[in-house]
Design brief:
Helix content: 25-40%
Strand content: 15-25%
CATH topology of the largest domain: Dihydrodipicolinate Reductase, domain 2
Number of helices: 12
Structural class: alpha/beta
CATH class of the largest domain: Alpha Beta
Number of strands: 20
Bound molecules: 6-O-phosphono-beta-D-glucopyranose
Protein backbone atom coordinates (compact mmCIF):
# COMPACT_ATOMS: atom_id res chain seq x y z
CA UNK A 1 0.00 0.00 0.00
CA UNK A 2 1.44 3.35 -1.06
CA UNK A 3 1.34 5.81 1.82
CA UNK A 4 1.83 9.51 1.26
CA UNK A 5 3.99 10.63 4.16
CA UNK A 6 2.44 13.39 6.26
CA UNK A 7 3.14 16.91 5.04
CA UNK A 8 4.71 16.03 1.75
CA UNK A 9 3.62 17.14 -1.66
CA UNK A 10 2.18 14.33 -3.77
CA UNK A 11 3.84 13.82 -7.15
CA UNK A 12 0.56 14.15 -8.94
CA UNK A 13 -2.77 15.71 -8.12
CA UNK A 14 -6.00 16.98 -9.64
CA UNK A 15 -7.68 19.93 -7.99
CA UNK A 16 -11.41 19.82 -8.68
CA UNK A 17 -13.06 23.22 -8.27
CA UNK A 18 -16.81 23.22 -7.77
CA UNK A 19 -17.93 26.71 -8.76
CA UNK A 20 -15.43 27.09 -11.59
CA UNK A 21 -17.10 30.12 -13.09
CA UNK A 22 -17.62 31.86 -9.75
CA UNK A 23 -16.10 34.99 -8.32
CA UNK A 24 -13.80 33.32 -5.79
CA UNK A 25 -12.27 31.05 -8.44
CA UNK A 26 -11.39 33.98 -10.66
CA UNK A 27 -10.32 36.39 -7.93
CA UNK A 28 -8.48 34.11 -5.54
CA UNK A 29 -8.11 30.45 -6.44
CA UNK A 30 -6.67 30.68 -9.94
CA UNK A 31 -4.31 33.58 -9.10
CA UNK A 32 -3.16 31.72 -5.97
CA UNK A 33 -2.51 28.54 -7.92
CA UNK A 34 -0.54 30.52 -10.47
CA UNK A 35 1.49 31.98 -7.58
CA UNK A 36 2.32 28.43 -6.53
CA UNK A 37 3.02 27.32 -10.10
CA UNK A 38 5.55 30.11 -10.73
CA UNK A 39 8.10 29.01 -8.10
CA UNK A 40 7.45 25.31 -8.83
CA UNK A 41 5.41 24.64 -5.69
CA UNK A 42 2.69 22.60 -7.37
CA UNK A 43 2.97 18.82 -7.70
CA UNK A 44 5.07 17.75 -10.69
CA UNK A 45 2.03 16.40 -12.49
CA UNK A 46 -0.87 18.68 -11.73
CA UNK A 47 -4.20 19.56 -13.32
CA UNK A 48 -7.23 21.62 -12.39
CA UNK A 49 -10.69 20.44 -13.30
CA UNK A 50 -13.14 23.30 -12.89
CA UNK A 51 -16.83 22.47 -12.77
CA UNK A 52 -19.82 24.65 -13.34
CA UNK A 53 -23.18 24.97 -15.01
CA UNK A 54 -21.97 27.47 -17.60
CA UNK A 55 -21.36 25.86 -20.94
CA UNK A 56 -17.61 26.36 -21.42
CA UNK A 57 -15.05 24.12 -23.06
CA UNK A 58 -11.38 24.12 -22.02
CA UNK A 59 -10.71 26.49 -24.92
CA UNK A 60 -13.47 28.97 -24.09
CA UNK A 61 -12.84 28.81 -20.32
CA UNK A 62 -9.10 29.51 -20.27
CA UNK A 63 -9.21 33.04 -21.72
CA UNK A 64 -11.49 34.10 -18.83
CA UNK A 65 -8.92 32.84 -16.37
CA UNK A 66 -6.13 34.55 -18.24
CA UNK A 67 -8.07 37.80 -17.89
CA UNK A 68 -8.47 37.17 -14.14
CA UNK A 69 -4.75 36.55 -13.77
CA UNK A 70 -3.99 39.86 -15.44
CA UNK A 71 -6.54 41.62 -13.31
CA UNK A 72 -5.98 40.14 -9.86
CA UNK A 73 -2.27 39.35 -9.71
CA UNK A 74 -0.08 42.02 -8.18
CA UNK A 75 1.89 44.24 -10.53
CA UNK A 76 4.76 42.41 -12.18
CA UNK A 77 3.50 38.95 -11.23
CA UNK A 78 1.83 38.14 -14.55
CA UNK A 79 3.94 36.55 -17.23
CA UNK A 80 2.08 35.71 -20.43
CA UNK A 81 4.06 32.61 -21.36
CA UNK A 82 3.99 31.21 -17.80
CA UNK A 83 0.28 31.91 -17.64
CA UNK A 84 -0.24 30.01 -20.88
CA UNK A 85 1.76 27.07 -19.54
CA UNK A 86 -0.19 27.10 -16.28
CA UNK A 87 -3.56 27.40 -17.98
CA UNK A 88 -2.84 24.52 -20.34
CA UNK A 89 -3.29 22.31 -17.26
CA UNK A 90 -6.71 23.77 -16.46
CA UNK A 91 -9.76 21.94 -17.78
CA UNK A 92 -13.46 22.57 -17.58
CA UNK A 93 -16.41 20.26 -17.23
CA UNK A 94 -19.92 21.55 -17.56
CA UNK A 95 -22.11 19.80 -14.97
CA UNK A 96 -24.73 20.53 -12.35
CA UNK A 97 -23.19 19.78 -8.93
CA UNK A 98 -26.63 19.43 -7.36
CA UNK A 99 -27.52 16.57 -9.76
CA UNK A 100 -26.34 13.14 -8.68
CA UNK A 101 -26.83 11.95 -12.29
CA UNK A 102 -23.95 14.21 -13.35
CA UNK A 103 -21.38 12.61 -11.05
CA UNK A 104 -20.55 9.56 -13.20
CA UNK A 105 -19.62 12.10 -15.87
CA UNK A 106 -17.27 13.74 -13.34
CA UNK A 107 -15.78 10.37 -12.49
CA UNK A 108 -15.12 9.64 -16.16
CA UNK A 109 -13.50 13.02 -16.75
CA UNK A 110 -11.28 12.48 -13.74
CA UNK A 111 -10.28 9.02 -14.98
CA UNK A 112 -9.32 10.50 -18.37
CA UNK A 113 -7.27 13.22 -16.71
CA UNK A 114 -5.69 10.63 -14.40
CA UNK A 115 -4.49 8.80 -17.45
CA UNK A 116 -3.21 11.91 -19.12
CA UNK A 117 -1.06 13.03 -16.16
CA UNK A 118 -0.38 9.58 -14.67
CA UNK A 119 -2.28 10.35 -11.49
CA UNK A 120 -3.28 7.47 -9.21
CA UNK A 121 -6.58 9.11 -8.29
CA UNK A 122 -5.27 11.88 -6.01
CA UNK A 123 -8.00 14.51 -5.84
CA UNK A 124 -8.65 17.63 -3.81
CA UNK A 125 -12.18 18.98 -4.14
CA UNK A 126 -12.63 22.68 -3.52
CA UNK A 127 -16.17 23.83 -2.76
CA UNK A 128 -16.39 27.36 -4.01
CA UNK A 129 -20.14 27.23 -4.55
CA UNK A 130 -23.12 28.86 -2.86
CA UNK A 131 -23.31 27.42 0.70
CA UNK A 132 -26.61 25.74 -0.19
CA UNK A 133 -24.57 23.09 -2.08
CA UNK A 134 -22.18 22.31 0.78
CA UNK A 135 -24.39 19.48 2.02
CA UNK A 136 -25.21 17.99 -1.37
CA UNK A 137 -21.76 17.71 -2.95
CA UNK A 138 -20.10 15.40 -0.38
CA UNK A 139 -23.07 13.03 -0.54
CA UNK A 140 -22.98 12.88 -4.32
CA UNK A 141 -19.21 12.37 -4.32
CA UNK A 142 -19.71 9.48 -1.92
CA UNK A 143 -22.40 7.95 -4.09
CA UNK A 144 -19.90 7.44 -6.91
CA UNK A 145 -17.07 6.47 -4.57
CA UNK A 146 -15.05 9.64 -5.12
CA UNK A 147 -14.74 10.17 -1.36
CA UNK A 148 -12.76 7.03 -0.53
CA UNK A 149 -9.03 7.15 -0.03
CA UNK A 150 -8.70 3.43 -0.69
CA UNK A 151 -9.11 2.87 -4.39
CA UNK A 152 -8.54 -0.20 -6.49
CA UNK A 153 -5.64 0.42 -8.83
CA UNK A 154 -3.87 -1.97 -11.25
CA UNK A 155 -1.66 -3.13 -8.34
CA UNK A 156 -4.55 -4.01 -6.04
CA UNK A 157 -5.52 -1.56 -3.32
CA UNK A 158 -3.96 1.88 -3.52
CA UNK A 159 -4.08 4.72 -1.06
CA UNK A 160 -5.15 7.85 -2.91
CA UNK A 161 -5.50 11.37 -1.63
CA UNK A 162 -9.10 12.52 -1.31
CA UNK A 163 -9.45 15.84 0.49
CA UNK A 164 -12.24 18.33 0.44
CA UNK A 165 -11.92 22.06 1.08
CA UNK A 166 -15.06 23.82 2.22
CA UNK A 167 -15.42 27.58 2.13
CA UNK A 168 -16.93 29.49 5.00
CA UNK A 169 -19.53 30.04 6.32
CA UNK A 170 -19.75 26.40 7.36
CA UNK A 171 -23.42 26.29 8.28
CA UNK A 172 -26.09 28.92 8.42
CA UNK A 173 -26.63 28.52 12.16
CA UNK A 174 -25.87 25.94 14.84
CA UNK A 175 -28.43 23.38 13.66
CA UNK A 176 -27.28 23.48 10.03
CA UNK A 177 -23.60 23.40 11.05
CA UNK A 178 -24.26 20.28 13.14
CA UNK A 179 -26.14 18.73 10.26
CA UNK A 180 -23.31 19.56 7.83
CA UNK A 181 -20.74 18.09 10.22
CA UNK A 182 -22.82 14.89 10.26
CA UNK A 183 -22.98 14.75 6.48
CA UNK A 184 -19.24 15.26 6.13
CA UNK A 185 -18.53 12.72 8.83
CA UNK A 186 -20.62 10.13 7.03
CA UNK A 187 -18.84 10.67 3.69
CA UNK A 188 -15.28 11.57 4.77
CA UNK A 189 -12.92 11.21 7.71
CA UNK A 190 -12.02 14.34 9.67
CA UNK A 191 -8.43 14.19 8.34
CA UNK A 192 -9.82 14.63 4.81
CA UNK A 193 -11.73 17.81 5.73
CA UNK A 194 -10.22 21.24 5.23
CA UNK A 195 -12.65 23.96 6.37
CA UNK A 196 -10.98 27.05 5.09
CA UNK A 197 -10.87 30.45 6.82
CA UNK A 198 -8.49 32.50 4.73
CA UNK A 199 -7.64 34.83 7.65
CA UNK A 200 -5.54 32.01 9.06
CA UNK A 201 -3.50 32.04 5.85
CA UNK A 202 -2.44 35.64 6.42
CA UNK A 203 1.17 36.06 7.54
CA UNK A 204 0.21 38.70 10.10
CA UNK A 205 -2.47 36.51 11.64
CA UNK A 206 0.04 33.69 12.06
CA UNK A 207 2.48 36.23 13.46
CA UNK A 208 0.18 36.80 16.45
CA UNK A 209 1.47 33.45 17.65
CA UNK A 210 5.08 34.41 17.02
CA UNK A 211 4.60 37.67 18.90
CA UNK A 212 3.04 35.94 21.86
CA UNK A 213 4.93 32.66 22.00
CA UNK A 214 8.35 33.40 20.51
CA UNK A 215 8.95 36.31 22.91
CA UNK A 216 9.38 36.19 26.62
CA UNK A 217 8.21 39.69 27.46
CA UNK A 218 4.59 39.75 26.36
CA UNK A 219 3.16 36.56 27.79
CA UNK A 220 3.68 37.46 31.48
CA UNK A 221 1.53 40.57 30.88
CA UNK A 222 -1.00 38.86 28.62
CA UNK A 223 -3.81 38.42 31.11
CA UNK A 224 -6.49 40.08 33.21
CA UNK A 225 -3.94 41.52 35.65
CA UNK A 226 -2.41 43.81 33.04
CA UNK A 227 -4.82 43.98 30.13
CA UNK A 228 -7.89 46.13 30.46
CA UNK A 229 -9.62 45.41 27.16
CA UNK A 230 -9.00 44.11 23.67
CA UNK A 231 -10.42 45.62 20.51
CA UNK A 232 -10.56 43.86 17.17
CA UNK A 233 -11.59 45.72 14.05
CA UNK A 234 -11.93 44.25 10.54
CA UNK A 235 -13.64 46.78 8.32
CA UNK A 236 -13.75 47.41 4.59
CA UNK A 237 -14.42 50.38 2.36
CA UNK A 238 -16.11 48.20 -0.25
CA UNK A 239 -19.74 47.32 -0.47
CA UNK A 240 -20.98 43.93 -1.57
CA UNK A 241 -19.99 44.37 -5.23
CA UNK A 242 -21.58 41.64 -7.35
CA UNK A 243 -22.22 39.30 -4.41
CA UNK A 244 -25.72 40.52 -3.55
CA UNK A 245 -27.37 37.11 -3.87
CA UNK A 246 -24.90 35.49 -1.50
CA UNK A 247 -24.55 38.41 0.88
CA UNK A 248 -28.19 39.03 1.56
CA UNK A 249 -28.57 35.40 2.65
CA UNK A 250 -25.45 35.65 4.79
CA UNK A 251 -24.88 39.03 6.44
CA UNK A 252 -21.85 40.26 8.35
CA UNK A 253 -22.20 37.93 11.34
CA UNK A 254 -22.02 34.78 9.23
CA UNK A 255 -19.63 36.26 6.67
CA UNK A 256 -17.03 37.71 9.04
CA UNK A 257 -17.77 37.37 12.76
CA UNK A 258 -18.51 33.67 13.34
CA UNK A 259 -15.27 32.73 11.54
CA UNK A 260 -12.66 35.43 10.79
CA UNK A 261 -13.19 37.56 13.89
CA UNK A 262 -13.68 34.54 16.12
CA UNK A 263 -10.29 33.24 14.88
CA UNK A 264 -8.64 36.55 15.72
CA UNK A 265 -10.11 36.42 19.22
CA UNK A 266 -8.89 32.83 19.54
CA UNK A 267 -5.32 33.66 18.54
CA UNK A 268 -5.25 36.64 20.89
CA UNK A 269 -6.74 34.77 23.83
CA UNK A 270 -5.48 31.19 23.44
CA UNK A 271 -3.11 29.39 25.78
CA UNK A 272 0.25 28.50 24.25
CA UNK A 273 -0.07 25.16 22.47
CA UNK A 274 2.62 22.71 23.50
CA UNK A 275 3.63 22.40 19.84
CA UNK A 276 2.49 24.05 16.67
CA UNK A 277 0.75 21.08 15.16
CA UNK A 278 -2.75 20.47 13.89
CA UNK A 279 -4.22 18.85 16.97
CA UNK A 280 -2.52 20.82 19.68
CA UNK A 281 -3.05 24.19 18.03
CA UNK A 282 -6.67 23.49 17.23
CA UNK A 283 -7.35 22.17 20.73
CA UNK A 284 -6.42 25.60 22.08
CA UNK A 285 -8.68 27.37 19.58
CA UNK A 286 -11.59 25.19 20.66
CA UNK A 287 -10.91 25.94 24.32
CA UNK A 288 -11.25 29.66 23.65
CA UNK A 289 -14.58 29.15 21.91
CA UNK A 290 -15.72 26.96 24.79
CA UNK A 291 -14.94 29.85 27.12
CA UNK A 292 -17.04 32.46 25.31
CA UNK A 293 -19.54 33.57 27.92
CA UNK A 294 -23.06 32.76 26.65
CA UNK A 295 -25.36 35.77 26.59
CA UNK A 296 -28.99 36.06 27.63
CA UNK A 297 -31.42 37.83 25.32
CA UNK A 298 -31.12 41.00 27.40
CA UNK A 299 -27.33 40.83 27.32
CA UNK A 300 -27.40 40.42 23.56
CA UNK A 301 -29.46 43.60 23.29
CA UNK A 302 -26.93 45.46 25.42
CA UNK A 303 -23.79 43.99 23.84
CA UNK A 304 -24.48 43.53 20.14
CA UNK A 305 -25.21 46.28 17.63
CA UNK A 306 -26.05 45.57 14.02
CA UNK A 307 -26.23 48.07 11.20
CA UNK A 308 -26.82 48.42 7.48
CA UNK A 309 -25.32 51.10 5.26
CA UNK A 310 -27.53 53.78 3.85
CA UNK A 311 -26.95 56.07 0.90
CA UNK A 312 -24.48 58.88 1.23
CA UNK A 313 -22.33 61.42 -0.47
CA UNK A 314 -18.76 60.25 0.24
CA UNK A 315 -15.53 61.62 -1.20
CA UNK A 316 -17.60 63.66 -3.63
CA UNK A 317 -19.44 60.63 -4.97
CA UNK A 318 -22.90 59.32 -4.42
CA UNK A 319 -22.99 55.86 -2.81
CA UNK A 320 -26.16 53.88 -2.88
CA UNK A 321 -27.75 52.26 0.11
CA UNK A 322 -27.38 48.53 0.68
CA UNK A 323 -31.07 48.12 -0.11
CA UNK A 324 -30.48 49.65 -3.53
CA UNK A 325 -27.68 47.27 -4.47
CA UNK A 326 -28.22 44.57 -7.12
CA UNK A 327 -30.19 41.54 -5.97
CA UNK A 328 -30.99 43.12 -2.58
CA UNK A 329 -34.65 43.37 -1.59
CA UNK A 330 -35.81 46.90 -0.82
CA UNK A 331 -36.85 45.84 2.68
CA UNK A 332 -33.77 43.70 3.45
CA UNK A 333 -32.86 43.46 7.15
CA UNK A 334 -29.48 41.88 6.50
CA UNK A 335 -26.70 43.46 8.54
CA UNK A 336 -23.60 44.89 6.88
CA UNK A 337 -22.10 45.93 10.22
CA UNK A 338 -21.76 44.19 13.58
CA UNK A 339 -20.12 45.43 16.76
CA UNK A 340 -20.18 43.44 19.94
CA UNK A 341 -18.70 42.93 23.37
CA UNK A 342 -17.84 39.42 24.49
CA UNK A 343 -16.06 37.81 27.41
CA UNK A 344 -13.72 34.85 27.51
CA UNK A 345 -14.67 33.19 30.78
CA UNK A 346 -11.50 31.55 31.92
CA UNK A 347 -8.70 32.02 34.43
CA UNK A 348 -6.62 34.28 32.18
CA UNK A 349 -9.31 36.58 30.82
CA UNK A 350 -11.99 36.82 33.50
CA UNK A 351 -13.61 40.27 33.31
CA UNK A 352 -11.64 41.54 30.29
CA UNK A 353 -14.00 42.71 27.55
CA UNK A 354 -13.21 41.86 23.92
CA UNK A 355 -14.79 44.39 21.58
CA UNK A 356 -15.06 43.25 18.01
CA UNK A 357 -16.51 44.99 14.96
CA UNK A 358 -16.76 44.55 11.24
CA UNK A 359 -18.52 46.43 8.48
CA UNK A 360 -18.83 47.07 4.78
CA UNK A 361 -18.63 50.58 3.35
CA UNK A 362 -16.59 51.98 6.20
CA UNK A 363 -14.11 54.83 5.70
CA UNK A 364 -11.18 52.53 4.96
CA UNK A 365 -10.06 48.91 4.80
CA UNK A 366 -8.22 47.92 7.92
CA UNK A 367 -7.90 44.91 10.20
CA UNK A 368 -6.18 45.32 13.52
CA UNK A 369 -6.08 44.18 17.12
CA UNK A 370 -5.54 46.74 19.86
CA UNK A 371 -4.52 45.41 23.24
CA UNK A 372 -5.14 48.08 25.88
CA UNK A 373 -3.03 47.65 28.99
CA UNK A 374 -4.16 48.95 32.38
CA UNK A 375 -2.86 52.38 33.39
CA UNK A 376 -0.16 52.75 36.03
CA UNK A 377 -1.57 52.52 39.56
CA UNK A 378 -0.37 56.03 40.39
CA UNK A 379 0.11 59.08 38.18
CA UNK A 380 3.32 60.96 38.85
CA UNK A 381 3.55 62.98 35.67
CA UNK A 382 1.38 65.42 33.86
CA UNK A 383 0.55 64.92 30.21
CA UNK A 384 0.21 67.56 27.54
CA UNK A 385 -3.55 67.13 27.28
CA UNK A 386 -4.17 66.00 30.86
CA UNK A 387 -5.05 62.46 29.73
CA UNK A 388 -3.60 59.26 31.15
CA UNK A 389 -1.43 57.30 28.73
CA UNK A 390 -2.10 53.60 29.09
CA UNK A 391 0.12 51.36 26.96
CA UNK A 392 -1.33 49.88 23.82
CA UNK A 393 -0.04 47.14 21.59
CA UNK A 394 -1.44 47.38 18.09
CA UNK A 395 -1.21 44.40 15.80
CA UNK A 396 -1.96 45.60 12.30
CA UNK A 397 -3.12 42.66 10.23
CA UNK A 398 -3.61 44.77 7.08
CA UNK A 399 -2.73 47.07 5.37
CA UNK A 400 0.73 48.44 6.30
CA UNK A 401 1.22 45.25 8.25
CA UNK A 402 3.12 45.64 11.47
CA UNK A 403 3.14 46.01 15.22
CA UNK A 404 3.17 49.22 17.19
CA UNK A 405 3.75 49.65 20.91
CA UNK A 406 2.52 52.89 22.45
CA UNK A 407 4.13 54.15 25.60
CA UNK A 408 4.80 57.40 27.46
CA UNK A 409 8.07 59.33 27.10
CA UNK A 410 9.26 62.55 28.63
CA UNK A 411 8.88 65.64 26.50
CA UNK A 412 12.36 67.17 26.17
CA UNK A 413 12.86 70.47 27.99
CA UNK A 414 12.16 71.86 31.38
CA UNK A 415 9.52 70.47 33.71
CA UNK A 416 8.32 66.88 33.50
CA UNK A 417 5.62 66.31 31.01
CA UNK A 418 5.08 63.05 29.21
CA UNK A 419 3.49 62.24 25.89
CA UNK A 420 2.50 59.12 23.99
CA UNK A 421 5.10 57.80 21.55
CA UNK A 422 5.29 54.69 19.37
CA UNK A 423 7.76 51.96 18.73
CA UNK A 424 6.92 50.51 15.35
CA UNK A 425 7.79 47.41 13.44
CA UNK A 426 6.54 47.05 9.88
CA UNK A 427 6.87 43.95 7.77
CA UNK A 428 8.83 45.94 5.19
CA UNK A 429 11.76 45.41 7.53
CA UNK A 430 11.57 41.67 6.82
CA UNK A 431 11.31 42.21 3.09
CA UNK A 432 7.57 42.84 3.31
CA UNK A 433 4.72 40.42 3.20
CA UNK A 434 5.35 37.79 0.53
CA UNK A 435 3.18 38.47 -2.47
CA UNK A 436 1.51 35.07 -2.13
CA UNK A 437 -2.06 35.48 -1.12
CA UNK A 438 -3.45 33.79 2.01
CA UNK A 439 -5.16 31.35 -0.35
CA UNK A 440 -1.82 30.23 -1.82
CA UNK A 441 -0.55 29.38 1.62
CA UNK A 442 -3.67 27.44 2.51
CA UNK A 443 -3.91 25.64 -0.84
CA UNK A 444 -0.29 24.64 -0.43
CA UNK A 445 -0.95 23.39 3.11
CA UNK A 446 -3.88 21.37 1.89
CA UNK A 447 -1.78 19.77 -0.88
CA UNK A 448 0.88 19.02 1.72
CA UNK A 449 -1.73 17.43 3.94
CA UNK A 450 -1.30 19.88 6.82
CA UNK A 451 -4.67 20.83 8.33
CA UNK A 452 -3.26 23.02 11.16
CA UNK A 453 -4.59 26.26 9.71
CA UNK A 454 -8.01 24.85 8.87
CA UNK A 455 -11.02 24.76 11.16
CA UNK A 456 -11.84 21.51 12.90
CA UNK A 457 -15.44 20.33 13.28
CA UNK A 458 -15.55 20.94 17.05
CA UNK A 459 -14.35 24.52 16.58
CA UNK A 460 -17.11 25.24 14.07
CA UNK A 461 -19.62 23.79 16.46
CA UNK A 462 -18.39 25.68 19.53
CA UNK A 463 -18.26 28.95 17.65
CA UNK A 464 -21.84 28.49 16.41
CA UNK A 465 -23.00 27.63 19.93
CA UNK A 466 -21.97 31.11 20.98
CA UNK A 467 -23.15 33.10 17.94
CA UNK A 468 -26.39 31.25 17.17
CA UNK A 469 -28.44 32.93 19.97
CA UNK A 470 -27.55 36.31 18.46
CA UNK A 471 -29.07 35.27 15.15
CA UNK A 472 -32.16 34.07 17.01
CA UNK A 473 -32.48 37.40 18.81
CA UNK A 474 -32.30 39.17 15.49
CA UNK A 475 -35.43 37.35 14.43
CA UNK A 476 -37.33 39.42 17.00
CA UNK A 477 -39.03 42.21 15.15
CA UNK A 478 -38.11 44.93 17.59
CA UNK A 479 -34.37 44.12 17.61
CA UNK A 480 -32.89 47.31 16.16
CA UNK A 481 -31.09 47.42 12.84
CA UNK A 482 -29.40 50.81 12.69
CA UNK A 483 -28.58 52.63 9.48
CA UNK A 484 -25.19 54.26 8.93
CA UNK A 485 -24.26 56.39 5.98
CA UNK A 486 -21.81 54.61 3.65
CA UNK A 487 -18.31 55.85 4.39
CA UNK A 488 -18.78 56.30 8.15
CA UNK A 489 -17.63 54.21 11.12
CA UNK A 490 -21.00 52.53 11.57
CA UNK A 491 -24.01 53.37 13.69
CA UNK A 492 -23.18 55.58 16.64
CA UNK A 493 -25.01 53.07 18.86
CA UNK A 494 -21.89 50.89 18.55
CA UNK A 495 -20.23 53.32 20.97
CA UNK A 496 -22.73 52.38 23.65
CA UNK A 497 -21.38 48.86 24.07
CA UNK A 498 -17.97 50.17 25.13
CA UNK A 499 -17.56 51.05 28.80
CA UNK A 500 -18.36 54.69 29.43
CA UNK A 501 -14.86 56.08 29.79
CA UNK A 502 -13.56 54.44 26.60
CA UNK A 503 -14.31 54.52 22.90
CA UNK A 504 -13.38 52.58 19.77
CA UNK A 505 -9.85 53.31 18.63
CA UNK A 506 -9.80 55.07 15.30
CA UNK A 507 -7.45 52.96 13.17
CA UNK A 508 -6.69 55.97 10.95
CA UNK A 509 -4.47 57.67 13.42
CA UNK A 510 -3.17 60.33 11.13
CA UNK A 511 0.33 59.08 11.59
CA UNK A 512 3.30 59.50 9.32
CA UNK A 513 4.03 57.00 6.59
CA UNK A 514 6.60 55.16 8.64
CA UNK A 515 3.92 54.24 11.15
CA UNK A 516 0.82 52.13 10.89
CA UNK A 517 -1.40 54.45 8.96
CA UNK A 518 -4.30 53.70 6.71
CA UNK A 519 -5.64 55.59 3.75
CA UNK A 520 -8.74 57.65 4.15
C1 LIG B 1 -14.40 37.10 3.02
C2 LIG B 1 -15.78 37.69 3.06
O1 LIG B 1 -14.36 35.89 3.71
O2 LIG B 1 -13.48 38.01 3.59
C3 LIG B 1 -15.80 39.02 2.34
O3 LIG B 1 -16.68 36.80 2.46
C4 LIG B 1 -14.74 39.94 2.87
O4 LIG B 1 -17.08 39.64 2.47
C5 LIG B 1 -13.39 39.24 2.91
O5 LIG B 1 -14.68 41.06 2.00
C6 LIG B 1 -12.35 40.07 3.60
O6 LIG B 1 -11.11 39.44 3.46
P1 LIG B 1 -9.78 40.25 3.29
O7 LIG B 1 -8.71 39.23 3.20
O8 LIG B 1 -9.93 41.07 2.03
O9 LIG B 1 -9.67 41.13 4.49
Amino acid sequence: MQQTPAHSLPQSLILVIFGGSGDLTKRKLIPSLYQLFKPGKLPERFAVLALGRTDYTDETYRPHLDESLQRYLAEGEYDASLAEQFLSGVHYLSMDPSEVADYPKLKESLARLDERIANPGNYIYYLSTPPSLYGVIPQHLAEVGLNKEETVGPDGETQAIRRIVIEKPFGYDLASALELNEIYRSAFHEHQLYRIDHFLGKETVQDIMALRFANGIFEPLWNRNYIERVEITAVENMGIESRGGFYDQTGALRDMVQNHLAQLVALTAMEPPVQFNADLFRNEVVKVYQSFRPMTKEEIRGSVVRGQYTESQWKGEHHRAYREEDKIPADSRTETFVAMKLFVDNWRWQGVPFYIRTGKMMPTKVTEIVVHFKPTPHRMFTTIDGETIPNQLIIRIQPNEGISLKFAAKVPGSGFEVKRVSMNFTYDQLGGIASGDAYSRLLEDCMLGDPTLFTRSDAVEMSWRFFDPILSSWQEEDFPLYGYPAGTWGPKQSDTIIDREHSWTNPCRNLTNSELYCEL
